[in-house]
Design a protein that fits this description.
single chain, Nucleotidyltransferase, domain 5, six-stranded mixed beta sheet
């Protein structure tokens, strides 16, 4: 992340107060939105979760609306990384099922692979 206004999103399993990293990107339950300094701004439902097609494109549209410059998930579908790259959003992979804040920390600390 490069500026104070940048948002980093973690794909999470629920909108609860302490969600965990979801296994998927485009079909995750929700997005936890963090500032680059670690403030949790919101947790919003993923509108693309139940999409019948083009879920990656719909999820990326929502990430852009949220101001995301990076996203962290456990897995990405075959089209997701390309759609994210075209939108200028970096995709990070966190293979362990950790809490959202831990996934955020690992991303900003440079511990995760970049897709």
């Amino acid at each position: 992340m490069t500026a104070d206004g940048d948002r980093m999103v973690v794909c999470v399993t629920s909108t609860s107060a302490d969600p965990r990293l979801d296994e998927t990107f485009a079909r995750c339950a929700a997005f936890a939105v963090f500032t680059r300094t670690g403030e949790l701004l919101s947790i919003v439902e993923n509108r693309a979760r139940e999409a019948t097609g083009a879920a990656s494109t719909q999820a990326v549209t929502q990430l852009r609306e949220l101001g995301a410059v990076a996203v962290t998930a456990a897995k990405y579908g075959p089209n997701a990384v390309g759609v994210l790259q075209r939108a200028g959003i970096r995709a990070y992979r966190c293979p362990e099922p950790v809490a959202a804040r831990e996934a955020w920390r690992r991303t900003v600390d440079g511990e995760l692979s970049f897709e």
